[in-house]
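WP5 quarterly update. Target: Catalase core domain-containing protein. Source organism: Meloidogyne incognita. Length: 93 aa.
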Amino acid sequence: MDTHHHRLGPNHMLLPINRPLKPAENTQRDGLNQFGENGGDSPNYYPNSFRGPEPTGKAAQESQFVLEKEIVARFESGDDDNYSQPADMWKNV
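Structure tokens (predicted):
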């Protein structure tokens, strides 16, 4: 996903295939690969004295999808050795 995000840019959710069914009211605009109307002349900050965007007050809903097997949501990497291999390469090259 990171490779595609870098290739498509920050506005990847504005691609027609990636767009949600109901558009979100947020302040994302400008940037690489802009496909939408780009917010027109409306400000991209809240609160403002112009027309929106305004928060809806609705929070994201927790997914009701149940997995049959356990999966790891986060991998503990506190004991990883991130320096020995680069140090050996630096010394030997």
